[in-house]
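Note to self: keep these together.
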Amino acid sequence: MKKKSLKLFWELFRATFTLSAFTFGGGYVIVSLMKKDFVEKKHWLENDEMLDLTALAQACPGALAVNASFIAGYHIAGYPGAFVTLLGTVSPPLIILTVVSHFYAIFSQSPFVAQVFGAMQAGIAAIVADVALGMAFSILESRDVLRILVLCACFAIVTLTDINIAFIIIGCAILGAVRSVKSAKKEG
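Structure:
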């Protein structure tokens, strides 16, 4: 049992370290790749669990990728899993930023570096669109009327108004908490 646990922790660390080290574009990009790895490849989580995890990670203060990794690690292997995934997620940026800060003067003047970052923006936009569409289709496939209404309402609010996205996330978190409490009361 201990070897299996150590192997699981190593796999959690390796997966989150690799995602964090080789992914550009922030939390939504990492979460989409985490979904492909944790849900589709390794089957550590179900698709609905990943959606719930992502929503919870968005509602928490802090970086989405770090929150999602921590919550996924906790869900998969308790507090030790949460610590391991947290360490795996934050280590690459810390290492990379430490190295880059030493060579900042050289990098900041390079037109090649500016072109590389410009090209990465197009790839990042495609990955974020893939995540958004994947989550939207998953909600539509669930045929849950409330989820579909919330999806449509959030889309309309974001595209038609200047309301800060933080208020929308807080509102959805409150709605989700109320729904969870009602669901728990029905079961209990």
